[in-house]
Amino acid sequence: MAKKAVILFSGGLDSTTCLAIAKAEGFDCYALSINYGQKHSIELENAKRIAKTMDVVEHKIISLNLSELGGSSLTSGDINIPDYKGDKAIPTTYVPARNTVFLSIALGWAEVLNSFDIYIGANDVDYSGYPDCRPVYIQAFENLAKLATKAGVEGKNFHIHAPLLRLSKSEIIKVGMKQGIDYKMTVSCYRANSKGEACGQCDSCVYRIKGFNEAGLSDPTLYM
Amino acid sequence: MAKKAVILFSGGLDSTTCLAIAKAEGFDCYALSINYGQKHSIELENAKRIAKTMDVVEHKIISLNLSELGGSSLTSGDINIPDYKGDKAIPTTYVPARNTVFLSIALGWAEVLNSFDIYIGANDVDYSGYPDCRPVYIQAFENLAKLATKAGVEGKNFHIHAPLLRLSKSEIIKVGMKQGIDYKMTVSCYRANSKGEACGQCDSCVYRIKGFNEAGLSDPTLYM
């Protein structure tokens, strides 16, 4: 029996690639999506379809309405999602503590499954400067996971896999193409409409477009 | 204007004492309860009533159904909540990664509020050996909080206050009595019924009963 891994899986380009990598590395994959009040919750419909094509053992969607906390243009009706600016500032699409919340839920599920491998598609190259996508953060969560759990106390080590951490977007796309991913099925756009079509202007779209360009591939994304 | 603190607040004996301490320490208090699929969700009704008597600025109840992950007698219909056994084993009431999930949500809210103080009623003395109640865990989460957040990157430090960490249950009760807490309003029992009445047999009840005994106080708890 293969080892189990929990994969944080939004249905976007990065996490779909991450899922394909976990599969290629021989894990039985348990995909975890979070319905957190994101405006582009259409991504979850795509996540469901992709999970089916990728033979995950189970795909769980957990609801936790982070929009009740406010403070992010990705969840709050009061703040518009900005176009890509290209400066160094962390944009308003930052969701406070999002990856910590997501990894915590993944950790809980992993412990229940007797799994010690968690995959997250965090990227520290072509990204918006989110603090919880940095290697130092991923390492700190891995340390915490051991201290936080019964399994950790019993001597087990959790491994937080972030295989995309140091790849450019074009490198990520090339890895995924080798694994046979149909990126047309993935939704990255923060403003994706109910058909999953992308705006082409937000941070997430701009990094994605740049990735296909630099990879010398035609962009399969459906635009509005 | 006083500084703000986020207090993880279940409506139980420990977190109510923790809220009273945060208030006494001069913070404007933002109480956070989680409806996580706990069988004793009646505690949240008590939490609402207590929050009103304690003049919190806001009391937020966030839903996140951890029973979907299973693995704990506190959330899963498949596992009965055990009576107190008194051995060293971590009981089935352990909820995998619970405090990490709760602290993560508290961290998100704190960052939105521009608050850098989070209170948790974790206790490392009269407790069930949960790994995420130990000082080493609390410290690791504090380290993570700085790395996880925009505020942390900008130089702010989050402080995870766990004022009950090294107190016995009787010491906690004495602290709370000085702050005028009416412990009759609090629910600790894992099997609390719809009236908030306690079983007297579960771990949580046994530690509470022991606390009132050792403090030389009559136990105000309502039993079934």
Structure notes:
The structure is a homodimer of 224-residue chains. The first copy, chain A, has helices at 13-24, 43-53, 98-113, 135-148, 150-153, 169-178, 203-214; strands at residues 4-8, 28-35, 58-63, 117-119, 159-161. The N and C termini of chain A lie far apart (44 Å). The model of chain A has no long low-confidence stretch (mean pLDDT 95). Chain A is an alpha/beta fold and 224 residues long. Helices cover 35% and strands 11% of the residues of chain A. In chain A, helix 1 packs across helix 6 and helix 6 (169-178) crosses helix 7. The first copy, chain A, is built from seven helices and five strands. In chain A, helix 2 links the parallel strand 2 and strand 3. Chain A has one domain (4-214): Rossmann fold. A five-stranded parallel β-sheet of chain A has the order 3-2-1-4-5, with helices on both faces. Chain A binds chain B through residues 60, 62-66, 68-71, 90, 94-101, 104-105, 107-109, 111-112, 131-132, 134, 136-137, 140-141, 143-145, 147-150, 152-153, and chain B through 60, 62-66, 68-71, 90, 94-101, 104-105, 107-109, 111-112, 131-132, 134, 136-137, 140-141, 143-145, 147-150, 152-153.
